Amino acid sequence: MIISAGGVVISESKVLLLLNTKGKWVLPKGHVEENESLRSAAVREVREESGLEAKIQKKLGWIEYSFYHQGRNHNKKVLWFKMRRTGGIPQPLRQEGFVDFGFFALEDLPESQMHENELLMIQKAFTC
Predict the structure, then answer these.
(1) For burial by CB atoms within 10 Å, which of 59, 112, 114, 124 has the most?
(2) What is the pLDDT of residues 61-79, one digit of tens each?
(3) Of 13, 9, 29, 28, the residue nearest 108 (C-alpha)
(4) Alpha-carbon distance 14 to 8, whole Å?
């Protein structure tokens, strides 16, 4: 099981999404490094993948999913946090496969190009 952490970063009532090379809009997330807390990992991954600084406001919950990569199945569990943008300049991390970014209002989300579990976390962040 891969353990990761990520952020639903909200700025001026819009959520940050990153566009990957597969044409999916996703939330910033990533693995937890050795001796790193889940909270620290979430903040670091947001900064590394998007260029933004953010502060955690609330824990949103876990999601679990499986994916196929490099010839085998992987199970992943991600702890999501609601975050508020505090600074930085958006710069998608191209080395991680991100080609663009956007800030979307809830009613303007590109739902057909998103993972359903991430969409649910975004909806939860806007209602809590």
Answers:
(1) 114
(2) 999 998 887 889 989 999 9
(3) 13
(4) 10
User: Do the bridges between strand 29-31 and strand 52-69 make them parallel or antiparallel, or are there none, so unpaired?
Assistant: unpaired
Q: Report the predicted TM-score, pTM, of the whole model to 2 decimal places.
A: 0.93
Residue with tokens 């909270």: 39
- Which residues, other chains included, contact 33 with Cβ-Cβ below 8 Å and sequence gap of 6+? 41, 44
Over residues 28-51, the pLDDT tens digits come to: 999 999 999 999 999 999 999 999
**SS3 assignment, position 119:** helix
For residue 97, give the DSSP letter.
Answer: T
According to DSSP, the β-strands at 2-11 and 72-88 are: parallel
Cβ-based neighbour number of residue 41 at 10 Å: 22
Domains in the chain, please, with CATH? 2-127 (3.90.79.10)
